[in-house]
Amino acid sequence: MKYGFYFFALMLSITGNMTAQELKYEQTPENIAYNGEGRYAIIIIRANNSLELEFSTNLDGDRSVIKKIEKNEVGNQTEYTLTFDALQVNEAKLQIQNKKYNQLIIQFKLSPNGAVAFVVKDPDDPDNAPCHIKHKKYGDKFFLAANYEGAKDEYSSSLECWPENERGVATVKRRLADIETISYLMEEIKNTDDRKKIYELYDQAYRLNPADKDMEEKKENVFKDYTGGTVKDGNRNQPHYALTYEYGTDAPAGLSAGIYKPEKIGAYFTLRLNPHIFAMMSSNTKKSFKAEFNTSAGLSVPVLTTEHVSFWTFLGAGYTGVAQHMKKSYTSSDYKTYLHSAVSPEAGILMKIPLQGTDRIVLRYTFQYRYALDRENGDFIGNIQNVIGVGFNF
Q1: For the segment 373-392, what is each residue's pLDDT rounded down to a tens digit?
Q2: Dihedral, CA atoms, 176, 182, 186, 189, nearest 10 degrees?
């Protein structure tokens, strides 16, 4: 266990180092006049205002060898002036930290009255990236701001300079396709007066870009127009009834009907059976088999209700009957049916996935445990049953 923990910590550390980027820098060729009274020297660091930087050196002990740090904002850049005693320190490694990126190390040499300047660059700044990445990042920025024309231009420029065989181009193409789809949906909205259809078109467009607040507001307003409520109210008033076809290994034919309300406890009833049970009802059946019959009921409890997907859990109990149709004895030609019974508590989860408007597909999973009333037949009945259901709400 101890070694497993160490391995996990090591892998977490490696993953963190793989994902974190490093700040970039370059030295500026400018000549800076500085009067250090024959003793002091300075290093000037410039960076975008978005980068908060902290400084130290490899020579720092109890006290930093940086005598003073001055910080000034100049336009959209921050200028840090670091003062050193060049008589004490003439060569060292400047360590630059930022919470978002890995530490940057700059080797430097200083002499009294000397001055040197560096520009530290944010690797996430589009202007510091290669052509295809630069335009993709600007495209992402425009897309999230719902500036679809600007995003389209930037993504198109990104494709023009995208290196051959480099991964990631599919993401750009998908965004361009999303923009085309949004444009098409907006045209469709202009061509219809059906308020429900307009809502559904806005909903489709909003799903392509959930960051589009204007689209979200328009969708909300249209929903109010044709329902008199909000989208949240729409979730609350969505159809509560669910009907699913239920499949289990020993009882492959079944139906479950229930009430699944977004904010209230509901109820359900399930009936499952094996078609062999109908053959068992015939007195002329001369064949050995077993047939299961299962019925259960319980309560449904809402767990999560959103516009896009909703979950309920349910708890219940039921009865399981397993009929065994077999010869009365090895020498007899007559058949008899033996019934084995069990009490069957169950639990599960139901999920509603929206299609269009208020239509939703329903998925249902049930875990059932059987307590045989006759312990000798517990293995025959089986202790555990997993059941999958699929259906619709209405």
Answers
A1: 887 766 778 888 999 999 98
A2: 150
